[in-house]
């Protein structure tokens, strides 16, 4: 991930690591990053109620040589769209404010995920899907709808595909897994015990397991391959929003990869499925 482009996200993620004085500086910047780019070091120190040396220490802790260099990085972060990473919806926000914040946060989170994800890992994941004799998508809670969407996409590739959000069915399928089966486990946090146990069971029985989850999580550690997905929101506190969009977009990338890997000879099959829906739709109205 590009350090300069994601400075705001880094500040937000490191809030708990900062000492009390440096955290005050971080909070002033996150509350209005645009305004922070216009502050002198004295003005920022005054707004945060800290000393100027504290501001300099804060800037150096994020890799900047000093405050002027830090302001340049901050401006670049704003230009990249990362500003909305830190803009949570407030209780007094009106429709225009919360709508723009939600859209802005989602755009910024997708941009961050795009920069973070490894194209080689995507290619390896496509290999696993191409080689699979059948694919099972597992998800719980908010990720269960993502698993169902994946089933809707991937059945088109002429493979047996299922989606399951029931933990008992997930355990039963994992217990009879075989070499050639692929289990795609979708979990934002990667800390759900039942999914980690199902993934472990499937691997022990010879299946491949692909995780769409957080880097370094318990689930990521037991998967054959994990596509590391950043954590732009705290789902222990807030209802999940951007996490599902990121998961769906990663699955779209995988579906595109499988389509391209299958080649042009597979296009008539996809066209046949698409054309089968034409009779179910009213014709578009002409103006």
TrEMBL record:
SUPFAM superfamilies for the chain: Homeodomain-like, SIS domain
PROSITE patterns assigned: HTH_RPIR (PS51071), SIS (PS51464)
Residue runs in coiled coils: 1-28
Any one GO biological process: carbohydrate derivative metabolic process
UniProt keywords, alphabetically: Coiled coil, DNA-binding, Transcription, Transcription regulation
Keyword set includes NADP: no
Record's keyword annotation contains RNA-binding: no
Domain (HTH rpiR-type) ranges: 5-81
CDD domains for this protein: SIS_RpiR
InterPro entries per record: Homeodomain-like_sf, HTH_RpiR, RpiR-like, RpiR-like_SIS, SIS_dom, SIS_dom_sf, WH-like_DNA-bd_sf
Gene3D superfamilies per the UniProt record, alphabetical: Glucose-6-phosphate isomerase like protein, domain 1 (3.40.50.10490), Winged helix-like DNA-binding domain superfamily/Winged helix DNA-binding domain (1.10.10.10)
Domain SIS: start-end pairs: 125-264
GO molecular function, one term: DNA binding
NCBIfam families reported in the protein's UniProt record: PRK11302.1 (NF008451)
Name the UniProt record assigns to this protein: MurR/RpiR family transcriptional regulator
């Amino acid at each position: 991930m590009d350090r300069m482009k994601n400075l705001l996200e880094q500040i937000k993620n490191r809030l708990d690591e900062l000492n009390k004085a440096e955290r005050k500086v971080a909070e002033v910047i996150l509350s209005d990053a645009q305004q922070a780019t216009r502050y002198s070091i004295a003005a920022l120190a005054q707004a945060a109620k800290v000393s100027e040396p504290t501001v300099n220490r804060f800037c150096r802790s994020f890799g900047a040589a000093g405050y002027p260099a830090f302001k340049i990085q901050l401006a670049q972060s704003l230009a990249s769209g990362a500003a909305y990473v830190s803009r949570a919806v407030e209780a007094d926000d009106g429709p225009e404010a919360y709508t723009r914040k939600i859209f802005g946060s989602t755009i910024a989170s997708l941009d961050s995920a795009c920069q973070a994800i490894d194209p080689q890992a995507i290619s390896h994941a496509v290999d696993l899907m191409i080689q699979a004799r059948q694919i099972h998508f597992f998800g719980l809670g908010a990720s269960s709808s993502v698993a169902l969407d994946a089933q809707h996409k991937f059945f088109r590739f002429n493979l047996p595909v299922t989606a399951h959000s029931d933990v008992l069915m997930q355990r039963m399928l994992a217990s009879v897994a075989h070499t050639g089966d692929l289990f795609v486990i979708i979990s934002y946090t990667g800390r759900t015990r039942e999914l980690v146990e199902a993934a472990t069971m499937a691997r022990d029985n010879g299946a491949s397991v692909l995780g769409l989850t957080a880097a370094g999580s318990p689930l990521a550690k037991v998967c054959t391959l994990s596509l590391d997905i950043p954590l732009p929101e705290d789902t222990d506190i807030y209802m999940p929003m951007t996490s599902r969009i990121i998961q769906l977009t990663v699955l779209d990338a995988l579906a595109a990869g499988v389509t391209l890997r299958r080649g042009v000879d597979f296009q008539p099959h996809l066209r046949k499925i698409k054309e089968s829906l034409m009779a179910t739709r009213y014709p578009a109205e002409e103006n």
